[in-house]
Amino acid sequence: MKLCVEQEKAFFTYDKVGNRTYARNENCISTYSYNNRNWLTDETRTIEGRAYSFHYAYNSVGDILENHYPSGYKAYYEVDTLHRVKKIKYSKPSETI
Asked: What is the pLDDT of residues 29-42, one digit of tens each?
């Protein structure tokens, strides 16, 4: 399987505030979605015709709280009062935390 990587021959599009919304190179097409605060919430990478979706969730100040992977695994982040990641918990596709 080929990977999505930044390359010289890549093509990008951006929205009116400068968020990357689309990326394409010879190996991959990626699309990106953002919330009203311009924080990345969803990313889909299509490689060799197969789509892989990622989802990101944040708290009210922009600290990442969750990352959902295409495999179904999820990462849950615990942050301290200085907005540093203190702990990461992972769940398998059939588990919830």
From this structure: 999 999 999 999 99
Under 8 Å between Cβ of 54 and 67: yes
Whole-angstrom Cα distance, residue 82 to residue 50?
39
Length of the chain: 97
What distance in Å separates the CA atoms of residue 66 and residue 31, rounded to the nearest whole number? 19
Closest CA to 79 of 91, 66, 68: 66
Q: Which residues pair with 53 in a beta bridge?
A: 44
Distances (CA, A) of 78 to 7, 39, 60, 96: 34, 18, 14, 16
CA-closest candidate to residue 70, choices 53, 56, 90: 53
Residue linked to tokens 């060799």: 48
